[in-house]
Amino acid sequence: MKALVYDGPGRRAWTEHPDPEIADATDAVVRIDAVTICGTDLHILKGDVPEVERGRVLGHEAVGTVLRTGGSVTTVRPGDRVLVSCISACGRCEYCRRGTYGQCLGGGGWILGHLVDGVQAELARIPFADTSTYRLPPSVGDEPTLMLADILPTSYEVGVRNGQVSPGDVVVIVGAGPIGLAAITTSRLYSPSAIVVVDTETTRLAPAKDFGADVTVQPEEAAEAVREASGGLGADVVVAAVGVPETFELCTELVRTGGHVVNIGVHGKPATLHLEQLWIRDVTITTGLVDTWSTPTLLRMLAAGRLDTGRFVTHRFGLSEMDEAYDVFAHPQDSEALKVALFRQ
Questions:
Q1: Residue 81 CA, distance from chain mean position
Q2: Is-contact 64 124, C-beta < 8 A?
Q3: How far is residue 216's CA from residue 209's CA, in Å, rounded to a whole number?
Q4: Helices H, strands E: what count in the chain?
Q5: Residues 170, 235 contacting (CB under 8 angstroms)
Q6: Cβ contact 86:292 at 8 Å
Q7: Tell me: the pLDDT tens digits for 212-267?
Q8: DSSP 8-state code for residue 87
Q9: What is the CA radius of gyration of the chain?
Q10: 98-112 pLDDT tens trace
């Protein structure tokens, strides 16, 4: 088969790779019908995730068709169309029994495209298929469902729920990439009074408006915009959706006393935490890896027409055009790409 293989920082190749096989009784082999690229994949290529070894197939977001299953798999079978979750869950360990699947101790967590071969390929082995795939109703298409593999549950769980967004809140989202746009979408489920989006790239601020932001500004204008939106108090919830030190530090400056700073971004470098300013202000700071406990709920909302994911994908490719898709996704300032989708040809 062909797959997108990581060959060390800055190097990737769409190349021949051995077909996956059933290795454990809980595995499934899935034909990849649709797949996308994540900002985390770009972090890997920059060398920000050193656990990823050379030769690893990247990717953790896909929709596919089950081809084969191990002897212990009971909830999906060959021919089923499934969402492949970015998080794998053994379903038995202490964390999985709490629904904290991202911290799985039984060999799961974020492993696809990280610790085991991922889904940017023609075929993929999916560990723990019973608890790591979701059978899809015929009414939902491959492309809109792709957004539920990672960015929608991530923004909802790590951003909105961890940040305790409530009706009437002022929500600030720093970073208008796909995760930031997903944070707009999921914040709006809780009727905030204002959503302020901050980004350095003006080309990303226009889509943020389309997704429902009330105010869009560049970083140097953020403090004044938040003061105006909040009556001088600051933001109730600030979402760090980029993963660089400067944006996290800006978030801690925009939050109100008693507010929440929630970090979604993948960080490859240290950020300064100004506790000398924050300790007295009752500020809560949370981080997190998505657990995907919300995926069934989001799927029901998508199937019922209550969740609009159609605006995320701006560029479409065949699987064999993986290199071009990476180039487009990695340079949004030129391509104006949000999410890209690649389909089996």
A1: 21
A2: yes
A3: 7
A4: 13, 15
A5: yes
A6: yes
A7: 999 999 999 999 999 999 999 999 999 999 989 999 999 999 999 999 999 998 88
A8: S
A9: 20
A10: 999 999 999 999 999
Alpha helices by DSSP H, listed for the chain, are: 39-46, 94-97, 129-132, 142-146, 151-154, 178-187, 202-211, 219-230, 245-254, 275-278, 295-303, 322-330, 332-335
Q: Return the structure tokens found at 14.
A: 């769409």
DSSP 94: H
SS (H, E, C) 179-225: HHHHHHHHHHHHCCCEEEEECCCHHHHHHHHHHCCCEEECHHHHHHH
Distance of CA 89 to the CA centre of its chain: 17
pTM of the predicted protein model? 0.94
Instruction: Tell me how far CA of residue 57 lies from CA of 52, 154, 187, 207, in angstroms.
Output: 10, 22, 33, 31
Amino acid at 156: Y
Measure Cα distances from 17 to 3, 113, 169, 217 in Å: 6, 14, 49, 45
Cβ–Cβ under 8 Å, residues 6 and 12: yes
Buried b (16+ CB within 10 A) or exposed e, 269-300: eebeeeeeebeeeebebeebbbbbbbbeebbe
Tokens describing residue 32? 């990849």
**Phi and psi at residue 5, in whole multiples of 5°?**
-110, 130
Please give the Cα distance from 87 to 294 (Å, whole number).
Answer: 12
The whole-number average pLDDT for the span 57-85 is 98
The tokens describing 253, both together, are 């400056």
Q: H or E stretch including 285?
A: strand 284-286
CB 73 within 8 A of CB 157: no
How many angstroms separate the CA atoms of 4 and 17, rounded?
9
Give backbone dihedrals phi and psi of 124, rounded to 5 degrees, phi first. -150, 145
Burial of 91 (0-12, 13-18, 19+ CB in 10 A): middle
pLDDT-wise least confident of 126-130, 145-149, 201-205: 201-205
Residues composing the chain: 345
**Interatomic CA distance for residues 100 and 109, integer angstroms:** 9
Six token digits for residue 296: 């069934």
pLDDT class for 42, splitting at 50, 70, 90?
very high
